[in-house]
Specification:
- The structure holds three protein chains of three kinds.
- By secondary structure, chain A is of the alpha+beta class.
- Chain A has helices at 40-44, 49-57, 64-79, 85-114, 119-138, 160-183, 186-192, 200-205, 211-215, 222-225, 246-270, 324-330, 332-336, 341-351, 355-359; strands spanning 2-4, 16-22, 25-32, 147-148, 151-152, 237-241, 291-299, 302-310, 318-322.
- In chain A, α3 packs antiparallel against α4, α4 (85-114) runs antiparallel to α11 and α4 packs antiparallel against α14.
- The longest helix of chain A is centred in the N-terminal third of the chain and has 30 residues, at 85-114.
- Chain A starts with a strand and ends with a helix.
- Chain B is built from six helices and seven strands, in the order αβββαβαβαββαα.
- The longest helix of chain B has 25 residues, at 152-176.
- The radius of gyration of chain B is 25 Å and the shape is flat.
- Chain C starts with a helix and ends with a helix.
- The chains are: A alpha+beta, B alpha+beta, C mainly alpha.
- Chains A and C meet through α4, α5, α7, α10 and β6 of A and α11, α12, α13, β1 and α14 of C.
- β6 (237-241) of chain A pairs antiparallel with β1 of chain C.
């Protein structure tokens, strides 16, 4: 029995995996989570709606804007608010840039798990560009607290469009460089092809979502099948894998970065130059009507769902978060049976989990 | 081997580029205008007192409840030097608990608290960054000086006054226009 | 624990005297000891500089600066590292096999050092020029494998034992191509004396005739030292720790020293075998030798920065199915060339052909356009319509 303990250089957060090993092969694996549990859902019941946005920032701390969007869109749905166009476009641009930065980190850690130490530096170099942009827009590199129920907190700076257009070519080049370094590298292919294969039906059965599901051949993307915000106005492609192995899950995210760049370009073109950035008539502390609503978005990790039960007050009665990484982790155990111990690290990395949202 | 060679060529090319490192703490990267640092209380230099009147809205709204304060009657108001009836007496922010969300700034009705650019506040003691009123005012004054701070209320008045001036110039022209054609306002 | 360092030095010194004294007879013992210690200090300086070069080279590949704060441009960083390792607490688990635990670092370090007794730095700078120098070098470098097994066993940690045995298996398997290539070079040079192999190349370095052999030797040497892409038994991100898992502080610094001495050894061997040793215009011979060694070492660091690491079974497969047959084929080719007296360019052509065939074969099997995995792109509007 080998314990990949909570402190381990490659468990992507405080995650413990107990492996039963026979020689070099894994016989069974048992994930232990909960090391990052902070009681977010319970805290939400005691906080006003504008304060909950700060909690959601910290759930999936690599895709902050997507988390804020999930929450704000849920409340907007239950209250029936229409967000003005300009705010929607800015939200989409920021969310897609956040997707790119999250996948850049994934690319780096995947290289690190395989043993290459340069991809992570390249990935973080690209992340710096995006985070500098975020700092110019919202003031913070990570925990932005920028989206509000009904729109945005304030107008982005005047040079927002120029700034975004300025980093797009550099990001495209960064993605290509990363691709050249790792994607078709013989050693990386040997380490990741045919490892941890998950068929499409199995993936659906385990409740997988996001790039891990698309790697197994199912073209499910919530931005497309159940569009939210203004995603139905963009023309982009959905990458779908052929084998459902680790390499496919990796290549999904690299391809998604390129598609996100396309979406950002189109959003920049379509964005109205001025207009309100907050829906009119929304109070500072909203009081949603009684009822319940479930809303889901496509975060870089998969389907993020927010289930809100409101009793008409200024604090939610119950707020449940359906995190994608939590469901994706269920597929870890069957994938790990029969593989080498050294592959366990690669498979775990390819699922791209963030413990912040697994444990909440 | 071809992919490996391509990868090696790429790392070679990268090694010839200028490193992107900024050697902290000798070199600091430039801060953005909106960069969010720890909250600080602003100082009204015209009257000589803090903007903060101690309404405690920020204290109530803080998600981590890191602030506390007390309110007193403003002695300068009794002397007729200040329009503020009440004044903040004691104020403490545990900067170690602050999550830099900026909600306190949003809800403040008196432009009394701003997110300064302070972000290097390491301390040796565990709760050593519990900052009281003089420290917060110091931070605020520093932030006001370095960012040429104008109180948002004053800014809003200025914008409104400008709009009113534009509108005042337009009506004489509008009176001559017909209903269909929009009046050609003066270029701002 | 810090006693280990002087112990290592003393042991190395004593063993060196024994080796050097054999066959000399009347030489002054003190002089021999002095020479051995001088060699040890030179090697230590080289190793320290190697750590600095490695960190700087890796940093530049990653578009960042390496150490910059300790001394100008971080030049004193290795001294800081060494100091840190020495003053660190040596944590020794209570149930280790004490004699083996203590001896393992020495068993790795002393043979690595003893190889250097006969390595020439230039045509005149060699401590003891042996006629069977190549044999001595290969024999001594294999001895340090025992040290690794001892380290694994002495750790009293079942995963340390497994790691130690795995690393020993890796090292032993990669010795074969190393030795076969060395024999090939010895055949071409007609002697086992290292100095003569180097000077016998003249202006036509052996790399011109044997590019394949250089590549095989480089890869096998990397596997011998335990560097990327073959460093699975040292990697931190692997679940099962390697043989060094229970070592810290001064004990570990001896392993560290041994590893870098081995790296330098592989680079020096490549220089002597393939790159003409110390031949070159203008600069003194030692300078050319060091320049060539460091160039080879930079290539090794370059590989480390670029490649992910191979899994242990893939590593063994690559060794046994790739390098061993290739090295034997190369040997046969050289044997035929020498027997039939073919001119040199025939060897170059054949060697290049084999190299290109082997790499193309590898590429076609794994990563070529037809074989590489692909990703389908489905436009969003198609999914929307459905």
């Amino acid at each position: 029995m080998v314990n990949m303990g909570p402190q381990h250089p490659s468990t992507h957060g405080v995650f413990r995996m107990v492996l039963w090993v026979d020689g070099e092969r894994i016989v069974d694996a048992e994930p232990h989570i909960g090391y990052l549990h902070r009681g977010s859902e319970k805290l939400c019941e005691g906080e006003l709606y504008p304060q909950i946005i700060t909690l959601f920032d910290r759930l999936d701390y690599l895709a902050n804007y997507n988390m804020e969007l999930a929450f704000c869109a849920t409340v907007e749905k239950i209250m029936g608010i229409t967000v003005p166009d300009r705010a929607e476009y800015i939200r989409v641009i920021l969310c897609e840039l956040n997707r790119i930065s999250s996948h850049m980190l994934f690319y780096g850690t995947m290289g690190l798990d395989a043993g290459a130490m340069t991809p992570i530096m390249y990935g973080f170099r690209e992340r710096e560009r995006i985070q500098n942009l975020f700092e110019a827009v919202s003031g913070a590199r990570m925990m932005h607290n920028y989206f509000r129920i009904g729109g945005l907190r304030e107008d982005p700076p005047d040079d927002f469009a120029e700034r975004v257009a300025g980093i797009l070519p550099a990001l495209a080049q960064g993605i290509e460089e990363g691709d050249k370094l790792l994607t078709y590298n013989e050693v990386f292919l040997a380490r990741s092809r045919g490892i941890g294969v998950l068929s499409g039906q199995e993936a659906l059965d385990y409740g997988l979502s996001g790039p891990s599901l698309r790697a197994s051949g199912i073209p499910d993307d919530i931005r497309v099948i159940e569009p939210y915000s203004v995603y139905d106005r963009f023309d982009f492609d959905i990458p779908v894998g052929n084998n459902g192995d680790t390499w496919d899950r990796y290549a999904m995210r690299v391809e998604e970065m390129r598609q996100s760049l396309r979406i950002v370009e189109q959003a920049l073109e379509q964005m109205p130059d001025d207009g309100p950035i907050k829906a009119a008539g929304v109070r500072a502390i909203p009081r949603p009507p009684e009822g319940e609503v479930y809303f889901r978005i496509e975060t870089p990790r998969g389907e993020m769902g927010v289930y809100l039960v409101s009793d008409g007050g200024d604090k939610p009665y119950r707020l449940k978060v359906r995190p994608p990484s939590f469901a994706n982790l269920q597929a870890l155990r069957p994938m790990l049976r029969g593989v080498y111990v050294a592959d366990a690290v690669m498979i775990l990395g390819s699922l791209d989990i963030v413990l912040g949202e697994v444990d909440r | 081997m071809l992919s490996t060679l391509k990868g090696m060529l790429m790392t070679l090319r990268t090694s010839l580029r200028k490193p992107v490192t900024a050697q902290y703490p000798k070199e600091h990267l430039p801060l953005m205008e909106r960069q969010v640092g720890f909250p600080a209380l602003t100082w009204d230099a015209d009257v000589g007192e803090p903007y903060c009147v101690g309404c405690m809205v920020c204290v109530r709204m803080c998600p981590t409840q890191c602030m506390s304060g007390t309110m007193m009657d403003n002695p300068l108001f009794a002397e007729g030097k200040s329009p503020r009836r009440k004044m903040i007496e004691e104020f403490e922010i545990n900067l170690g608990r602050c999550i830099l969300c900026g909600i306190c700034v949003e809800v403040c009705n008196f432009d009394a608290i701003e997110m300064s650019h302070e972000h290097e506040i390491s301390h040796f003691a565990r709760n050593g960054r519990r900052s009281d009123l003089p420290v917060l005012l110091e931070m605020g004054k520093k932030y006001q000086a370095e960012s040429n701070w104008i109180s948002p209320a004053v800014k809003k008045e200025a914008i409104a006054a400008e709009k009113a001036a534009v509108a005042a110039a337009a009506p004489p022209a509008a009176a001559e226009e017909t209903k269909d054609a929009p009046p050609e306002g003066e270029a701002k | 624990m810090i006693l280990l360092i002087p112990l290592a030095v003393v042991l190395a010194g004593l063993v060196s005297i024994v080796v050097l004294a054999i066959g000399y007879g009347g030489e002054d013992v003190a002089l021999l000891l002095g020479k051995a210690l001088a060699l040890l200090s030179i090697l230590s300086v080289v190793v320290l500089s190697l750590t600095w070069v490695e960190r700087k080279a890796l940093a530049r590949i990653q578009q960042r600066m390496g150490p910059m704060r300790v001394g100008p441009y971080g030049l004193l960083q290795p001294i800081a590292d060494g100091l840190k390792l020495l003053i660190k607490e040596d944590i020794m688990p209570a149930w280790v096999d004490r004699p083996i635990y203590w001896m393992a670092p020495l068993a790795v370090f002393v043979p690595s050092f003893m190889v250097w007794l006969t390595m020439p730095f230039s045509s005149s700078l060699v401590l003891r020029d042996m006629e069977l120098g190549l044999l001595y070098v290969l024999a001594m470098s294999v001895l340090s494998i025992i040290g690794l097994i001892m380290a694994g066993w002495g750790s009293a940690n079942k995963y340390g034992v497994i790691g130690g045995l795995r690393s020993a298996a890796q090292l032993i398997s990669y010795e074969i191509p190393l030795i076969v290539i060395a024999i090939t070079i010895a055949m071409m040079a007609g002697t086992l004396n290292l100095t003569e192999i180097a000077t016998g190349q003249g202006n036509t370095w052996y790399v011109l005739m044997q590019p394949l052999a250089l590549v095989i030797f480089l890869l096998a040497g990397l596997a011998e030292v335990g560097r990327s892409p073959f460093d699975i038994f040292q990697a931190e991100s692997e679940v099962v720790g390697g043989p060094f898992i229970e070592y810290s502080g001064a004990h570990w610094s001896i392993f560290f020293l041994g590893e870098y001495i081995n790296t330098f050894l592989v680079a020096a061997l490549i220089t002597i075998f393939f790159l003409g040793g110390w031949s070159g215009p203008l600069l003194p011979e030692v300078a050319w030798f060091l320049i060539k060694c460091y160039s080879v070492i930079l290539v090794m660091f370059w590989l480390r920065g670029t490649m992910p690491r191979l899994r242990i079974d893939q590593l063994m497969a690559f060794g046994w199915q790739g390098l061993v047959p290739l090295s034997f084929l190369n040997f046969l080719m050289v044997a035929f060339a020498m027997f039939y007296g073919w001119p040199d360019w025939v060897q170059t052509v054949l060697s290049l052909t084999m190299l290109i065939t082997a790499s193309t074969f590898l590429y076609l099997k794994t990563a070529s356009k037809k074989v590489r995995p692909t990703v389908r792109l489905i436009p969003a509007r198609e999914v929307r319509r459905a």
